[in-house]
């Protein structure tokens, strides 16, 4: 009882201590609300922003303050106030900023003044990024997403009613999430976050908002090329819009104009502070590949002479597959402590060497001869080139020093989140005292609906618990196992997964098995709390309706960190190409509706062991397998299978594919003992992110990979009939060639070193395609190559090149580019003894149905063999990967 009384008293004192300050409305001279205007107490680290309706609230301790009101394009207003023991009403009307076009003078030239300003701002961007050594701040974030339209709602009207009743989801109603957090940042990449309070309009549990700050000085902004990137002049033109004076600094207005508008670039306005060349504020927008418009507004204020973003507002709107939505993410932070990197004090001058040479130009030897502090002590003026060189040299030295202290320098972000036990239990009075940005009317309505749902859920939970006691003895309906996949949580670390034999995902058909009915059961046990050690046991059973037979196999897997060992064995069917080029879904469609049975299967009774490990922090993967199999060629389950649709130009083919290198792909029953070894080396820099103590390697799409593979057919052992040696090398690489433009290629070569006894399943097969719908990896797949036409037991060479272009032919037209269209050019090449230099040359367009099915593409492909033109065809494709 004493503890309870103490908690109440503490809460009362806390709320009372913050129960004074200022509140009011910020408007323009026209009476329009100044949405998300920035309000701060001059000389302190305390501030907030207004909401969409222009209303604001700022808690302050008793005393005298100068309150600064800021809004992009408007003159700052400074109001002196005296705070007592209650809130003071302070309404402000802001006037548009008067801009002087004559303030910036850069010499006798005709170049737009913005160009020289941006040269110096770009040269100093990295300098500003490294200025802050550490800080602690209280951060308020609020996200609000509203779905404004859904397609064909008549198909799921009942589900929408249920979603509104159970999850407070309704078209036109904001979905809110608010978070108040204590954030501690330490350079270069450590963020510690404690969630003090969290509230959302959908769920009863804490849904914390990750700390996200758009760094205004990084080369990427909103996922696009930043106006302050080192190569910004390749993407943008800049126009000077005048200068105004604010808080003792001259601020220049710069219009950011992309040379080609679309995804990958931004447009808008950037305000740069004269002499320091720091960002004062910005208002920019970009467009994503999916057709969403994203806008960022940011306002900075001086904290110990460093201009820091005190408020950022992100907004978006757009549509995807017929659904339309808009949303906002607002972040306001108040700094509690702030430490500047002593090496980056704002006391140097950047000179544009095109107009004014610095007193002394540094050579490469000068740059490397001393520390950054030594160079700054010798002179205070640097050219843009020298400053960038000095900062780069400083980072190299800092990297070496950090590596000596901690070899784990490959970590690019180390963050952790701790949730206060009271985060979800904060009272409305507590929220009103902490909320930096008042709620809008629509958001208040959404919370009221959410609060009423909490009451309903509480009552329902009690009712359900009573029902559970009464009905628990009945057990679960066994029929559920027949129609639904089920995941049973046996304990905190153990799960049992059942896959139903009757569901749409496994409704496959092929001419060998008919309609196979497949069910599986898998047990998984974690051996530690970090998911680094686990084992699993499983089994798959399958009834082949066409052959009236049961087949199946079992598996056992053990994983310890980066090493995995697996055992499997049984009787099952497999595609002749072990890479499974034909999806069961696609084969079902072609077989049932188009009378084309592309999938070719054989049966094997097998036992197999697999081993793989990833040393060198995952950069290297080494693995192998040994398999013994008794292989049997299969035939279609009936000689004359009646098609669902009878096509005159198509006929079902035997389960023996056509091939050119040998007279027949058929084979006698035989036994095969095979050894397969492989290693994959990922070159390039490896980087990691640590999240709550868990280290995760970041994907590097630009890193080239080299894969070596050796496969041997071992004769005479265990009755094995195969005898061959096969080796292959594959090199794959992709890299950006410009904004939203990319080049990817894959080169493979190899062959059979010996081929004394090779059966068709052991041949080298290729990723062909014979259906008009193209799936799979667009880089390494052929578009028209018959699946087994050029399978070989000899040598081969294979090359694939795919170029993705933001602008090529049709996308030169801005309206088409803004729809999200992309153009591709590709070449596929294959050389085997029988292929006669088979080549495909193609042109494709991605996003042929923008905003509805943006992942589809159409391709026109020309085919050549031995220098002879074979014809041109069309493929409809997708980048989505289907199960195989």
TrEMBL record:
Record InterPro entries: CarboxyPept-like_regulatory (IPR008969), DUF5686 (IPR043741)
Record flagged with keyword Signal: yes
Signal peptide region: 1-19
Pfam families the UniProt entry points to: CarbopepD_reg_2, DUF5686
UniProt keyword terms in alphabetical order: Signal
Keyword Signal: yes
Name of this chain's protein: Carboxypeptidase-like regulatory domain-containing protein
Species the sequence originates in: Fibrella aestuarina BUZ 2
Lineage of the species this protein comes from: Bacteria, Pseudomonadati, Bacteroidota, Cytophagia, Cytophagales
